[in-house]
Q: What sequence folds into this?
C-alpha cells in the first residue's frame, strides 16, 4: 500500500485541522492505520490508531479528547480531526499502515500551531 498524507498547514492555537491519508491498493480495508508525529529535535511519537474496521481506536494521552481518528474504507482514506490545537502539536504528521507484521509509511504533512 502507498500512503499520501495531506491537510497540514498553519493554524492558531485553539484552531482545528483535518488531516487525510489517501491509500492506494485494493487491500486498504485490511490494514490497521495510525498517525504519528515528529516535532523538531524530537523522536517520532504515536498519535492515534484505528483498526481495519474502524471499530477500535487508540490515542496518545496528549491528544485524547482533542483528536479523532476515523477511516472511510470505500474511499481508501484515513482521517485525523484535530481540534483545540496547541503549539506543542506542531510537528510533521505521518500516516502508517500495518498488516501481518509489515508497516508502510507515507510522506508527512507539516502542522504548525502558532501561539
A:
Amino acid at each position: 500500500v502507498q500512503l499520501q498524507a495531506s491537510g497540514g498547514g498553519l493554524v492558531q492555537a485553539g484552531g482545528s485541522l483535518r488531516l487525510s491519508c489517501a491509500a492506494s491498493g485494493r487491500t486498504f480495508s485490511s490494514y490497521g492505520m495510525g498517525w504519528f508525529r515528529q516535532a523538531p529535535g524530537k523522536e517520532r511519537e504515536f498519535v492515534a490508531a484505528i483498526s481495519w474496521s474502524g471499530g477500535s481506536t487508540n490515542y496518545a494521552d496528549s491528544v485524547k479528547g482533542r483528536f479523532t481518528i476515523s477511516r472511510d474504507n470505500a474511499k481508501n482514506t484515513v482521517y485525523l480531526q484535530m481540534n483545540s490545537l496547541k503549539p506543542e502539536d506542531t510537528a510533521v504528521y505521518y500516516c502508517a499502515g500495518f498488516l501481518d507484521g509489515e508497516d508502510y509509511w507515507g510522506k508527512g504533512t507539516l502542522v504548525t500551531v502558532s501561539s
